[in-house]
């Protein structure tokens, strides 16, 4: 039997119909909460992201294999240098063949190493993780949590973890900052920055890289004279694994252009006079015309933390 009803406010509704602002028979809001659909979509994206990450982790576990020997990995380096051309040997340009692009270098690495890849990222920007993740979703991204980072750097790390298809791995020193201060004196970085870097960066990274066959870095030849001869692929004797530098031939403008084209996260300090970003106590702004790394360990006889030498 059909008819109408009148609610306390005087509105007339057909019998069986839901009043305005309440959920209908399908359970979908018809008003009252304009953000409900956005929240539902965000929840769906979060769930899909978590499912994708979990599926990747399961496949990775299923396909896990023992790390290959140094001899086997060295042979892969030789093949890579022949295939990718360019500066396969530091300082030696190949005039007969163009260098491989960053995307080609990553494709080669994925073919050769599968999931046994680690991307090192200082969170000055997320360009390198983005380039790699296009062909290796949920790749491990190693972040050296030194305990001395700018808040902007830590914020960039968190944004990358939330927005990109990568797996952030926080690489921690053996000692906290407080423990290091107690054992070696407060602010070791001001008295012996090499020792501080060794404990908070080099040793933790070396320890962590032991789980992988290759690490990918964002080192570029234009960053400093010490990096002019950076090859696309090389053997890392110190860490005992393959090292590739897909962005070696890029300029700083290339990096910013890629970030703009692909809407990649940048550390806000890049636009505040810090073209090279390290730990806060050891990094200052760079004046116009200065070397991009002039702000690192300024006033000290030190140009590298030890990761790439």
TrEMBL record:
The protein's matches in CDD domains, at most eight in alphabetical order, are given as: PAPS_reductase
Spell out the subcellular localization from the entry. Cytoplasm
Q: According to the record, how does the cofactor bind? A: Binds 1 [4Fe-4S] cluster per subunit.
Domain Phosphoadenosine phosphosulphate reductase, which positions?
A: 118-284
Q: Which reaction does it catalyse?
A: [thioredoxin]-disulfide + sulfite + AMP + 2 H(+) = adenosine 5'-phosphosulfate + [thioredoxin]-dithiol
SUPFAM superfamilies per the record? Adenine nucleotide alpha hydrolases-like
Q: Which GO terms describe its molecular function?
A: phosphoadenylyl-sulfate reductase (thioredoxin) activity
Q: Where is the composition biased (Low complexity)?
A: 16-43
Q: Where is this region: Disordered?
A: 1-70, 80-99
User: Which pathway is recorded for this entry?
Assistant: Sulfur metabolism; hydrogen sulfide biosynthesis; sulfite from sulfate
Name the UniProt key words of this record, in alphabetical order. Cytoplasm, Iron, Iron-sulfur, Metal-binding, Oxidoreductase
- The positions flagged as active site in the entry are 305
What family does the Swiss-Prot or TrEMBL record give for this protein?
Belongs to the PAPS reductase family. CysH subfamily.
Q: Protein name, please?
A: Adenosine 5'-phosphosulfate reductase
């Amino acid at each position: 039997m059909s008819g109408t009803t009148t609610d306390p406010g005087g509105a007339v509704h057909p019998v069986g119909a839901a009043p305005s602002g309440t959920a209908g028979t399908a359970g979908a809001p018809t008003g009252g909460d304009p953000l409900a659909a956005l929240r539902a979509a965000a929840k769906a994206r979060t769930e899909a992201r978590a499912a994708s990450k979990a599926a990747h982790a399961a496949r990775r576990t299923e396909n896990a294999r023992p790390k290959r020997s140094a001899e086997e990995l060295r042979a892969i380096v030789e093949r890579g240098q022949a295939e990718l051309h360019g500066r396969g040997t530091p300082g030696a340009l190949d005039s007969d063949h163009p260098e491989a692009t960053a995307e080609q270098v990553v494709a080669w690495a994925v073919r050769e190493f599968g999931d046994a890849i680690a991307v090192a990222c200082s969170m000055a920007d997320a360009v390198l993780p983005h380039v790699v993740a296009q062909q290796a979703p949920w790749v491990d991204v190693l972040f050296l949590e030194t305990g001395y980072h700018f808040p902007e750097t830590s914020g960039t790390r968190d944004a990358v973890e939330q927005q990109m298809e990568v797996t952030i791995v926080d690489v921690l020193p053996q000692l906290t900052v407080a423990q290091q201060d107690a054992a070696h004196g407060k602010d070791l970085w001001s008295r012996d920055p090499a020792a501080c870097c060794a404990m908070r960066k080099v040793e933790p990274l070396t320890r962590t890289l032991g789980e992988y066959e290759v690490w990918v870095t964002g080192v570029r030849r234009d960053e400093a004279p010490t990096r002019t001869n950076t090859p696309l692929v090389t053997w890392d004797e110190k860490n005992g694994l393959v090292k590739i530098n897909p962005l070696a031939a890029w300029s700083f403008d290339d990096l910013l252009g890629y970030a703009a084209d692909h809407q990649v996260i940048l550390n806000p300090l890049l636009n505040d006079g810090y073209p090279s970003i390290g730990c806060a106590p050891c990094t200052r702004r760079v004046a116009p015309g200065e070397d991009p790394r002039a702000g690192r360990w300024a006033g000290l006889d030190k140009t590298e933390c030890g990761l790439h030498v």
